[in-house]
Design brief:
membrane; 13 helices; transmembrane; transmembrane helix; single chain; two-stranded antiparallel sheet
Length: about 375
């Protein structure tokens, strides 16, 4: 966090910035590692305590038992609870020190930290993502404050507050206050991991464009050693993404699904629920914040696939500028290896997250929103 602030101050003052090495170490990462499964008894204990506090409001909202002892539940609360439980459990069990060590080891093998432009790309984009993420959370937090302000104390001519109402109210405040730091840290972690893959692809694209530009302008002879090194670097990036995918594929599934759910439910609430005007207005801004959050996460992951496709045409063209049979064999092996699957993360192992996936996700979400009035009238 301090590094981000220093770099931001330097950028705003237009001073020359000496960017540090690429790193995904952050306050968000350390916060989640404290409650991760790799922290032994302490981590597991803290995880259970925090999980209980975050989900405490569901104890009185999720399950309602009436006087005749019949069981009832709110389907939307069940879905919300399931998404939250999935995401927090995933970060506890999958995002641990062992996973980070493996990812960092794969990144360090690529060896690109010496390049100033690479470091600049990582830190400037990381700061932009984080600023936008924080901005997306502000209207959501303000909306919750409005709701708490107008929901308690509740007194009217027909109804009065009860001990259960007070319990619901204070549990909601407690769980919300604890939830926001962890939810924000989860978003930051996912984007940081995506940026780690992005920066490696940015580096190889820059190198390929430089080599291609030199050949076109000066007519130099192709250096097969350089192309061989770039092909090997591309394979190393593939291995980095594969290592990250053991966590990232499930994390993208959980977080994207959760935020799509929020967008749909918020639209339903705005369209059909009767609310106090200040809450109605704050709900609109909160919905925009959640939509921005969804776009940031999706964009950070989709950019990996887009950037992974950019070097291939140049790499093919440069690689085949040779008459060496040995080099052609190396090229064939390279094409064979990368032909299995594209570089990128998937939606829970089901679909590669590409621009087409994003368009499909948007169309499905819009279709559900359009269909909501039909379900409501039925």
């Amino acid at each position: 966090m301090m590094t981000d602030i220093k770099i931001l101050k330097s950028l705003l003052s237009k001073n020359e910035v000496n960017y540090p090495k690429v790193s995904i170490d952050s306050l968000s990462s350390r916060l989640n590692l404290i409650v991760s499964s790799s922290n032994g008894v302490t981590g597991n204990g803290l995880f259970l305590v925090i999980l209980s506090l975050i989900f405490s409001r569901h104890l009185t909202i999720l399950i309602k038992i009436s006087l005749d002892s019949t069981f009832s539940f709110n389907p939307l609360e069940v879905l919300h609870f399931s998404f939250q439980l999935f995401n927090f459990s995933l970060f506890h069990f999958k995002y641990n020190q062992q996973f980070l060590d493996k990812v960092i080891a794969k990144y360090q093998v690529i060896n690109i930290d010496y390049d100033h432009q690479t470091r600049k790309f990582f830190w400037t984009h990381r700061i932009i993502y984080r600023i936008l993420l924080i901005l997306s959370y502000m209207p959501q937090a303000l909306h919750d404050m409005h709701v708490f302000k107008h929901s308690w104390p509740h007194q009217s001519a027909t109804s009065a507050s009860t001990p259960n109402d007070a319990l619901d109210y204070w549990l909601s405040i407690l769980s919300t206050a604890i939830y926001y730091p962890f939810a924000l840290s989860q978003d930051i972690i996912l984007i940081d991991l995506a940026m780690l893959s992005q920066v490696t692809l940015h580096n190889i694209n820059d190198k390929l464009n430089a080599v291609s530009g030199e050949l076109q302008v000066e007519g130099n002879k192709l250096n097969n050693k350089v192309i061989k090194m770039l092909r090997w670097q591309y394979l190393l990036i593939h291995r980095l993404v594969d290592e990250s995918s053991s966590f990232m594929n499930l994390a993208t599934f959980g977080l994207i699904s959760h935020y799509v759910y929020f967008v749909i439910v918020d639209f339903y609430t705005l369209a059909f629920d009767k609310q106090i005007v200040p809450i109605k207005i704050s709900s609109m801004f909160a919905s925009m914040g959640i939509l921005l959050e969804l776009c940031l996460i999706t964009h950070s992951v989709v950019a990996i696939y887009i950037k992974s496709q950019q070097p291939l045409p140049i790499l093919y063209k440069l690689s085949f500028k040779t008459y060496s049979f040995h080099v052609l064999n190396e090229i064939s092996l390279f094409l064979y290896r990368i032909g299995f699957n594209d570089i990128g993360f998937s939606f829970g192992g089901l679909f590669m997250i590409t621009p087409d996936f994003t368009s499909t996700l948007a169309l499905v979400t819009i279709s559900i929103i359009i269909a909501i009035p039909s379900f409501h009238s039925a």
